[in-house]
What we know:
- With 270 residues, this protein is α/β, with parallel strands linked by helices.
- The protein has a domain at 9-177 and 249-267: Rossmann fold, CATH 3.40.50.10310.
- Helices cover 40% and strands 10% of the residues.
- It has 9 helices and 5 strands; from the N terminus they run H-E-H-E-H-E-H-E-E-H-H-H-H-H.
- It has helices at 14-22, 45-63, 93-110, 124-140, 188-197, 204-209, 220-225, 229-232, 249-267, and strands spanning 26-31, 68-70, 114-119, 144-150, 166-169.
- The protein has a 5-stranded parallel β-sheet with strand order 2-1-3-4-5, sandwiched between helices.
- Helix 2 (45-63) links the parallel strand 1 (26-31) and strand 2 (68-70).
- Helix 2 (45-63) crosses helix 9 (249-267) and helix 3 packs parallel to helix 4.
- The radius of gyration is 18 Å and the shape is globular.
- The chain starts with 13 loop residues before the first helix and ends with a helix.
- The mean pLDDT is 95.
Amino acid sequence: xxxxxxxxxxxxxxxxxxxxxxxxxxxxxxxxxxxxxxxxxxxxxxxxxxxxxxxxxxxxxxxxxxxxxxxxxxxxxxxxxxxxxxxxxxxxxxxxxxxxxxxxxxxxxxxxxxxxxxxxxxxxxxxxxxxxxxxxxxxxxxxxxxxxxxxxxxxxxxxxxxxxxxxxxxxxxxxxxxxxxxxxxxxxxxxxxxxxxxxxxxxxxxxxxxxxxxxxxxxxxxxxxxxxxxxxxxxxxxxxxxxxxxxxxxxxxxxxxxxxxxxxxxxxxx
Length: 270
């Protein structure tokens, strides 16, 4: 059953939400988009991934003594790189920013004091909208709103990691796949994760037939900034989907949850 609301507030009663807020539970907000992910994966790959990360993170936090709840996933983000493809829904930056702010404002109104955004989509404009939404929420609302952001790319966005609305996450250092082609979009890692949890949504036969595609360092910005995506990859993926069998999915998710939990606890919980 593809229950994207599994273990989220959407499946809880309002009295359960009140109890969680009264117990100072942390809120994990899954963030993503609905966009094409190659011919082998569903449009919802990013938000399914963010939801899975939150499930694993919730377990890790609770093992460390910190209660946590997962907010309903937000998936109307910005499709910058794949916007020219059928299936990639387009949202305006201001719309995304205001919606995420309103979600955090609602959570603050419920009585929650700590909200963390866990994003599984890497578009530049998408990240900018989320950074601005969490910054505004942290400045204007009575809540500690923090966006979980990769430490290795913060400098590209003018961030230091000291900002109260940013929670820097260390890069993955464990080897979890065999492919030497980076999974930029719809590659081996994303295909493996989706196949492990939602096999009915993955076309394994097609995945196994796809040759590796990499734009190289000189073309990656053409992909990231959009407009030339189909020229770089007519099938809409960058990576090596056929290598999905060489991915250690559960080690990957456990490691991701560990790094996220370390970042949250390290930043301090109010």
